[in-house]
Structures are given as structure tokens and as C-alpha cells.
Amino acid sequence: MNLPFAPYIQILGKGSRGDQDMSQQEADQSNSIILNGQFEQTQFGAFLMLFRIKDENHSEMSGFSQACREPLKVPQDFPEVVLDWATYAGKRRQLSRFTLSALMHAMQVKLRDQIYDLNVQASKNIVSCALHGCGHGRDRSSGYLRS
After folding, report:
1. pLDDT of residue 26
2. Mutual angle of helices 41-54 and 24-35, in 10-degree steps
């Protein structure tokens, strides 16, 4: 029986203190084997369980991503993809990194838009003062803002 997937299971499955990380190349090769269906079902199950125990690192994620991109037939005029977001949250009870990143980006965009709106309003007030005289300023007698 030919077991081309066995070396990758051995890398990950040396026990809680002997397990190793895969290199980017090993992760690329192992994922290519998975995508081509060249594995035994029990091997694939063991591989997934070992990753659930271990957690993946950046070189492994990069290799997995690379293996997924290789078989794709991307049109010449298609924009270059510069970011891959993993959607797996691991064994922890937390949101996926993709979800957290999207929420953080949305908050930054909202904050940026709020700052932009404040700048636009301030600019309108400055233009209004320049054109019509400064009606938006401090009342010299009371010290309160007038509108």
C-alpha cells in the first residue's frame, strides 16, 4: 500500500512534546495531496485531529494557502490577491480571525467617516464665516458660543 501522506502525519504526531511544525513546503505538499484526494481516509482524519491538538503556525498556513492557489486557473486580467484570511478559529471558543479582522476594519472605517464628517462640517463653518462674516464665534459680552 502506498502511503504518500504518512510523512506529514509523522511530523505532527510525535506526542505532546515531540510534535513539530511543518515547513511551508511540507504544508504545501500535504495540502496538494489532500486536494488531489491521494490519501487514505484514516490518514486524513489523523492529520486533522493532530492539527486540532497542535494549532497551525504562519508557515503552515502560508503553505496551505499556496497549495490552494496553485490549481486555480486565474484569468490574466484578474487583480492580484495579496491577502488570504483564514476563517478557522481553532479549538478555542472565539470568533474566527476573519470575523474579528472584518469587525476591526468596519470600526476603523466608521471612525474615519466620523472624522471626515467633522472635518467637512468644520470646513463649511470656516467658509461660511469667510463669506458672511463670523457669526459662529464667541459672543464677546457673554463668552458663550452663538450659532
Report:
1. 92
2. 140
The secondary structure of 10-43 as a DSSP string is: HHH-S-TTT--PPPHHHHHHHHHHHHTT-S-HHH
Banded model confidence at residue 25, pLDDT cuts 50, 70, 90: very high
Rounded to whole angstroms, the Cα distance separating 18 from 90 reads 21
Q: Which of 82, 92, 20 is nearest to 57 (CA)?
A: 20
Q: 1-84, superfamily in CATH?
A: Transferase, Pyrimidine Nucleoside Phosphorylase; Chain C (1.20.970.10)
Nearby residues of 145 by Cβ (< 8 Å), 6 or more positions away:
136, 137, 138, 139
C-alpha to C-alpha distance for 119 and 139, rounded to whole angstroms: 23
Residue with cell 457673554: 142
Across the chain, mean pLDDT equals: 76
